[in-house]
């Protein structure tokens, strides 16, 4: 089983574990008389190895069976960094008294001998020379990174550090591991809680619960060139769950017809059985991975394939692709008819998205293709499929991919997309389409266009969006002539405030990028009075030389806005400390205010810098800022390695308006919607909630000094209106998220993996009593885009009476011409 972000980056290894049943207090638990980690091997599949994959073996020295349901084995690199994570392999069943239990981990490209049939299968590519393995009560990943911290974690049942591992029991790690050597306990299974003395290096000797010591599957010897099919069919390989029951085993003479060939990237070809079984759960197609070698077959060839079954994981959180690796292929005949494709449409795709595993892995759950969309797609993995007249929900990307929906009535937006409505209401009909012919890529299409006619190919899976159609025949795009929107001009008494993420703009960018972004502000946004910009970089962008100013960048940008017919904007920002605000290394990303000095005044209050917090100051005339521009709580841990909010005090028609520009932490690191952990963990959310609480606290301080204060909080919050982040930001009803004032089918400003969603927001305090709000769609739905975000604008009547006409309204499409 391989797990890697690139196919060449694999380091395979294997581990055998003996269980220690007692929890570990401040020093590791007393030596166990029952279950321990008995053997660990991380060299499987490496160059020079005999075994094809890594393993962990558990053993039980006790007199009663040791239950493993709900437990896991976990792996940590030998020298963990701040970003290192424990990788989890879940366990089931039990270890018999005196027995063994074998956990197979990742396979490599070397080795010739398969493991005994494993009792559990993980995906961890372990190091051959240094690492830590723990037997854990539970499946939640450990967080400890030192021996002392791990000794204090009472979930750890037993722990083995090997090679040069930092985390280990006792005086030191077990020594001597390599591509050909594991570390194992003595036959007595003695456990003194000292890895260096309890385990010694030797030839790997994996044993499973059945007592088997040799490879499973068919004889992995030279298969020759069989002319008759072997005993294994593709549906036997695919099985009834996401992971093949033959994972890691050799197969001989698997018959099939070549349905598609991939000659670039992950090279190989797909075969499909022409005699399917009657079980809808078992896919009849499989990918044959040829590595760096170009496939020596053609579509229509009838072939017999011998090799090793492998589950390839594109990343640690994705589902896997079942493959046959290191193949030997016999072409029996050519020019054969292909199996008819399965039609994917609204009738075929079930309404539910994916089963739940309570946050755990769905790998072992039996597929239910009539109940869950992702189970249906998995049951068709590697199989020929067809779609027809599908609406585009995600524009063609720079990688020549386009997202369509086979469920045309599912959460449609006004402009042809598919709305992402909640965490529990996933859009089941989204499919990514990629062409297998480099000479005929997916045509350019915008959201709302239609991929007309039929598109057919094989169903595949990758980490960038999940299930996708690798097309061998493409339909044609019907252009629905999607237009970029233009919002109305603000009236004289209206203060127009906008937010726009300009996607890492710096003075080294091409003039065309400046010009396109400038037109968005001058024309499409109709020259707002204030624009809060996200992702302005320092003047030399990613060059990491200590530069923190953005004057040249902003001069070029404001010049371009004038050239596009807009006003001469002034600007304010607080330069960050070098390297302290996250973003692209060297870029020193920050928030910036542009403002039209002929329409609005900026109130400058000196003293604002990268480390000085802004505060609300109560006066007889209302609230003011201690510094302007300023930053909210820059020393708070919420903003560690993240851009800080920019706060400015403006005057318009004699009234004060406080604007807070934000760019919250990104969603990087979250588990994908289509991944193997369900429901997905949104790990990045913790940071954004902390950031939202800081902004909420600041807004409350303004309103405590003046309950009628006009506050506009806006920017790229990197989260949805229904998220805990926005909930924390609006706590106490101090802010109103204006996106929720639009009709449901207009509540979006960003498109990701075919989902129209909202990451950008404008929120206003109760003192903003009359407003007109609009999302201006000029980027996210288009293949040609200056930014991946659409800007938003709110027009505020600062002189609206306290008991006026409610809280305004969302502009929606009524604001466009």
In short:
The protein has 817 residues and is mainly beta. It has a 7-stranded mixed beta sheet, covered by helices on one side. The relative contact order is 0.08.
Your description of this structure?
- It contains 8 helices and 43 strands.
- With 817 residues, it is mostly beta strands.
- The strands form 9 sheets. The protein has a 7-stranded mixed β-sheet, covered by helices on one side. Strands 30, 33, 34, 35, 36, 37 and 40 form a 7-stranded mixed β-sheet that branches.
- A hairpin with a 2-residue loop joins strand 31 and strand 32.
- It is globular.
**How many strands?**
43
Instruction: Sum up the overall morphology in one term.
Output: globular
Strand content: 25-35%
- Give the end-to-end Cα distance, rounded to a whole number of Å: 56 Å
How are the strands of the biggest sheet laid out side by side? 28-29-27-26-42-41-43
Instruction: Bin the helical content.
Output: under 10%
- Low-pLDDT residue intervals, each spanning 5 or more residues: 1-26, 217-221, 812-817
What does the main sheet amount to?
Answer: 7 strands, mixed
